[in-house]
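Quick one: C-alpha cells for this chain, please?
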Amino acid sequence: MSLEEDILIERFLRNELSEIESTDFLNKVDLDDDFRERFLIEKQLFESLNENEWSHVSKVDEKEFSEYDTLYNADAQRIKSVIHKATTAYDNKKKVKRLVYFSSAAAIVAFMILFNFYTDKNQLTTTQLYSEYVRIDELNSLVNRNTDAIAIKFVDAEKQFKHKNYKAALIKFDELLKLQNKNSVLYIYKALTQLELDNPNAAIKTLDSLINSDLIDAEKGYWYKGLVYLKSNEIIKAEQVFTLITQKSYFKHKEAKDVLNQLDSI
C-alpha cells in the first residue's frame, strides 16, 4: 500500500473528498481487493478510536490488525469482559499490550456502563432513555467484507449516517432498499435517519413496513418503534409498544421491561 493510497483513505474517512473523488474512491474499493481490505480495516479503527489513536494504530502491521479486528467485532458482553480482565489483571503485560490501542474505546464503554448504573433513574427524561437504549453500535451488520457493489454502497450509506449527513444518508438508504428490501437493518437505519431529520411519523411508517414484512427478524421493528415514541415524548404509545414486547417476548424484551420500569418514574 502506497503512501498516496493511505492519504486517500484518510481523506475519504474524514469526508474531505469531492463527490467525483468519492465516486472514484468507491470504484477503487470495489475493484481492488487489497485496497478494499486495507480500507475496511482503517474504517473500523477510525470509528473505534479518536483521531490521534487512529493515526498511531494505522502504522501497526497486518498481523496485529487481524488481532484488533477480531477484538473489535466481539459483542458488547465480550467488551465488558475484556474491560474487567484489563482492570483486575493489569500486571499481565501480554494482555495489556494486546489491549493498549483499544484503551480509550474501552474506557468510554466502561464509563457509560458505570454512568448508566449510578445515574438516578428518577431524573431521566424520555430523550435520555432513548439515548441510553438506541445503541447504534449494535447495527454494525451493515458493514461487511463482501465483494459485491452493494456492500460498498452499504459502507458509504453508513458513513454518511455516522457523519450525521442525514439527508444524504436517507437518499442512500432509500436506494439500497430498492435493491435489497429483505435486509431488516436497512429499515432500521432508515427509520433512525428519519427520526434524526425530525420526522418521527415517517420513521414509524418505515418501522411498520418492517413489522408487517415476512422477514425473520421483523419483530425488531417493535423495539425501534418504541424508541421512536420515546424520543418523541409519546409516553403512552411507548408504554404500549414496550408492554407488547414484554408480553410476546419479542426482541429486547428484557430491556423493554427495564424501560417500562423507568418510565414509571418519569
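The CA atoms of residues 109 and 206 lie 30 Å apart.
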